């Protein structure tokens, strides 16, 4: 459940400074939006996926829908509206893979359309293993989706971006929350999160707030996972970075797919790190999302390790 976009990507030697005009290498138009990216990524990793969201009735909406259909994602629960344009994003990427993004939410921020999409998808909730959600919809629609999932006993994995507010009580009931360092700082009311040590503290605080499992994403440094009485730092995988757009979305999809297949949280995080790293090696959002054989090969290579902290994995109860 979440936002669906079309991305306009400009790549250049570096990102522009304030007031500066640069000449880009070219313009690329890709499917994007965090929900759409996560849906396509999960499908490429082998999951059966339905997407719930809202598009405009414009040409960009037609194109976004066609890309999802082509990827094998069920789009039966996507609502089209004439009130708003399809969500778009302008993505600037430099030669080192760093990006700056400006987005116009459009139909993703239409309360009526998004509420209708979520209500229409209620029938899905009796047959799904997990719901991935982000904050690219109105907060009221996010809350509606979480409540419906809770009523139907469906776990929610919440990717709290674009971050809008500190951690509300309702969000504390999700099965998993996975902020990055900046987002965890906002969720926790300003506590500094910088590197694995601070991330362990932040993850533990999110757990104390009532979240089932907390994962703090650290970019190239991997992630920290906190569950029932233990935390672990799962280091990142070194790759040649082209564009980090959608790397976090590939991570979330990898985490959900691995857990759905029975992996414990640490092994799921290792798999997710591999998916996210591979997504950073190609330009664009959806074109960069890796297929299962690529992720399996990197995962089996042993490059994605784990660093334990008290208690160690051998001392965990329940195995994950």
What is the gist of this entry?
By secondary structure, the protein is an alpha/beta fold. The protein is built from nine helices and 13 strands.
The level-1 CATH class? Alpha Beta
CATH superfamily: Ribokinase
Strand coverage percent: 15-25%
**Approximately how much helix is present in the residues?**
25-40%
Q: Please tell me how large the radius of gyration is.
A: 19 Å
Order of helices and strands: EEHEHEEEHEHEEHHEEEHHHE
Question: How many beta-strand runs?
Answer: 13
User: Ends: how far apart?
Assistant: 26 Å
- Average pLDDT across residues? 90
- What low-confidence regions span 5 or more consecutive residues with pLDDT below 50? 307-320
How many strands, what sense, and barrel or not for the largest sheet?
A: 7 strands, mixed
CATH architecture: 3-Layer(aba) Sandwich
User: Largest beta sheet: what is the strand line-up?
Assistant: 7-8-9-10-11-12-13
Please report the number of helical segments: 9
Shape: globular
Query: What is the third-level CATH name, the topology?
Result: UDP-N-acetylmuramoyl-L-alanine:D-glutamate ligase
User: How many separate domains?
Assistant: 1
Backbone structural class: alpha/beta
Protein described:
This protein has helices at 34-44, 59-70, 111-120, 139-151, 181-187, 196-208, 247-260, 265-279, 292-300; strands at 5-11, 27-32, 50-56, 74-81, 87-93, 99-104, 131-134, 156-159, 176-177, 213-217, 223-226, 231-234, 307-309. With 320 residues, it is an alpha/beta fold. It has a single domain (5-15, 26-315), classed as UDP-N-acetylmuramoyl-L-alanine:D-glutamate ligase (3-Layer(aba) Sandwich), CATH 3.40.1190.20. The strands form three sheets. It has a seven-stranded mixed sheet with strand order 7-8-9-10-11-12-13, with helices on both faces. It has a four-stranded mixed sheet with strand order 2-1-5-6. A hairpin with a 5-residue loop joins strand 5 and strand 6. Helix 1 (34-44) crosses helix 7 (247-260) and helix 7 (247-260) runs antiparallel to helix 8.
